[in-house]
Specification:
Layout (H helix, E strand, L loop, with lengths): L5 H29 L5 H36 L5 H35 L6 H34 L4 H35 L5 H48 L14 H27 L4 H9 L1 H6 L1 E12 L2 H6 L3 H21 L3 E6 L2 E6 L9 H14 L1 H12 L10 E16 L4 E6 L1 H16 L3 E4 H7 L3 E10 L7 E9 L5 H18 L3 H14 L4 H15 L9 E3 L4
Parallel strand pairs: 4-6, 7-9
Antiparallel strand pairs: 1-3, 1-4, 2-3, 4-5, 6-8, 7-8
Length: 577
């Protein structure tokens, strides 16, 4: 229930001011009627002339305001021609009204001079008329010339500095015009006071009462205005500060309700809104631990697109712990939970830092992907490879943390990871049932990445990637071709590569390894077994224990013992994951 609305407050102030002004007017009229005979000439000639000058001053101000409105309308983008035309019309009308009021004042003074005045000094009126004539011929004409010069600039949207300079000159001329008009009015008032000896006492009484009532009305109006404006602006300012805090993400504030008007109701509504935003923020923070916030934003902005799905080129990464079953058997359930939580945090950080989306955790495995709309198409493979390299670099520091995590001095656990990366077309969208949905990627590219992760077992490597991934990553990484294989579940052969390091970061030994291995791989594919054996042996001399080189040497023994058929093209078929 609103006890006193803003509308009632404003209407109340207006009524009080109207009553005070009405009382002032009636008292003034009663007193003026007592001296109406002596002031008849004043009311018929002098006062109209004085009022005409005052109105001319007001019209001059209106004209200046209309000129600024024209400039403001021209500065708006786009320009509203209708508003500009209205401002121009107001400007022209104010100018015409100014000239009309000035002519009326001069005509009244001319009549007083021609007919003679009972108030006395005709020479003083002649001086006033001369000053008005000079004012019109000099200051007013200069003002009109300056305005005539700036109007084309305003209409054409000309240089703002030039317009501003013209406005400064116009303001100076208008101030001079106002000053001269004020001086004329003051001199006319002085004439009245000097030549009205017979009515001076009563006139002073009328003036004193009118001033007293006006001051009283102004004081009361000012007091009520301050009270009401303070009561309105203070809560509005608090609301503004609260809105800015919400915009900045600070949702810990509640505004005090200090009134029962519309502002008070608005404050209550604002507090409720902030409470709802706090609740939504808590939900978003909690939900963001389960689903990547970028997926949430994408589903909210384009839910239909997510439901329908799209085929896009994506880069998929699978990461798994080497011999996880054996590792887990060495730990207690509590220790395993600590280790796995720390492991997932450690390995997930590089994925997030390089713009990847973690799709899911599958036991000890991590599945992540890169691609539009979350990652630029040109960057996805590079970012995925760099993330994989960061992940392998964090294995050693993670192993150093194991004793603290398990509360043991010595941890007889060998810990390492295997990573597979593939780039290609995949189905992207929300997959699931009516009850539970998951925004994920599906298709041969996903399967290929998973198979590449598993292929590390055979080659005793850490990061294997598809040819498309290596080609897209470009100079950002250093890689070597490992083999041409047909993976389980894949229709055709794939060239697979090992990611050795970042671009330009290989040691001389690694460069020698890559060169010797490439020579051995070429000899191997053309059945030059002895040459291939020597090249792979040289690769092992460059980097002892190189897994792919050892694997290829063992395979050469098998192929020499059981030579492949004539259609063999150097492709190795995987019979298990």
């Amino acid at each position: 229930m609103i006890r006193l609305s803003i509308k009632r407050k404003i209407i109340g102030i207006a009524l009080i001011l109207i009553v005070l002004m009405t009382v002032t007017a009636f008292l003034s009229m009663a007193l003026v009627m007592q001296v109406s005979g002596r002031l008849e000439e004043l009311t018929q000639s002098y006062v109209p002339a004085y009022a005409a000058l005052a109105r001319a001053d007001a019209r001059s101000l209106e004209r200046a305001v209309a000129l600024r409105r024209m400039i403001i309308e021209k500065m708006e983008s786009p320009v509203n021609d209708e508003h500009f035309a209205a401002a121009r019309s107001g400007f022209d009308q104010a100018g015409a009204a100014f000239e009309k009021e000035m002519q009326a004042a001069r005509a009244l003074i001319d009549a007083l001079i021609a007919n003679g005045t009972r108030f006395g000094d005709t020479l003083a009126l002649v001086r006033l008329q001369t000053r008005l004539s000079d004012l019109v011929a000099d200051t007013s004409q200069h003002l009109n010339d300056e305005i005539a010069g700036v109007l084309p600039l305003i209409e054409a949207g000309g240089d703002r500095k030039e317009i501003a300079d013209s406005l400064d000159r116009i303001d100076a001329l208008r101030d001079e015009l106002d000053h001269q008009l004020d001086a004329v009015r003051r001199e006319m008032l002085d004439l009245l006071r000097a030549d009205s000896a017979a009515t001076a006492r009563k006139q002073r009484v009328v003036t004193a009462i009118a001033v007293l009532l006006t001051v009283l009305a102004a004081a009361l109006g000012l007091v009520f205005s301050i009270l009401v404006s303070t009561g309105l602006t203070r809560p509005v300012r608090r609301l503004l500060e609260g809105a800015r805090a919400v915009e900045a993400g600070r949702l810990d504030q509640t505004l005090a309700v200090t009134s029962q008007d519309e502002i008070g109701l608005l404050t209550i509504a604002f507090n409720r809104m902030v409470e709802q935003l706090r609740l939504k923020e808590r939900i978003r923070e909690t939900f963001g631990k389960y689903v990547d916030p970028r997926i949430v934003e994408g589903l909210i902005s384009a839910p239909a697109l997510a439901a329908e799905g799209q085929r896009r080129v994506m880069t998929v990464l699978f990461c798994d712990i080497k011999s996880f079953v054996g590792v887990s058997r060495e730990m207690t359930p509590q220790g395993l939970v600590k280790v796995m939580n720390r492991y997932f945090s450690t390995m997930s950080a590089p994925i997030h830092q390089h713009g990847g989306i973690i799709d899911k955790y599958i036991g000890d495995a991590i599945m992540a992907y890169w691609g539009p709309p979350f990652t630029a198409d040109a960057d996805q493979a590079r970012l995925a490879c760099l993330a994989a390299l960061d992940m392998t670099e964090r294995v050693a520091p993670f192993c150093q943390e194991l004793p603290d995590l398990l509360g043991l001095k010595n941890v007889p656990i060998k810990f390492n990871i295997r990573i597979g990366i593939a780039t290609g077309e995949a189905l992207v969208g929300s997959i699931g049932s009516e009850v539970l949905m998951s925004y994920t990627v599906m298709g041969d590219t996903v399967n290929l990445a998973s198979r590449l992760e598993g292929a590390n077992k055979l080659y005793e490597s850490r990061i294997l990637a598809s040819a498309a991934t290596v080609a897209r990553a470009g100079a950002a990484i250093e890689a070597r071709e490992i083999d041409r294989v047909v993976l389980l579940g894949q229709a055709g052969p794939h060239e697979i590569y090992e990611i050795m390091g970042r671009g330009g970061a290989l040691t001389p030994a690694q460069i020698e390894l890559r060169t010797r291995y490439a020579v051995g791989l070429a000899a191997y594919r053309t059945r030059r077994w002895d040459e291939a054996r020597r090249a792979f042996g040289a690769a092992l001399e460059a980097v002892a224990g190189d897994g792919p080189s050892l694997t290829m040497l063992k395979r050469i023994d098998v192929l020499q013992a059981s030579p492949p058929g004539d259609d063999w093209g150097g492709v190795w078929h995987f019979e298990q994951k």
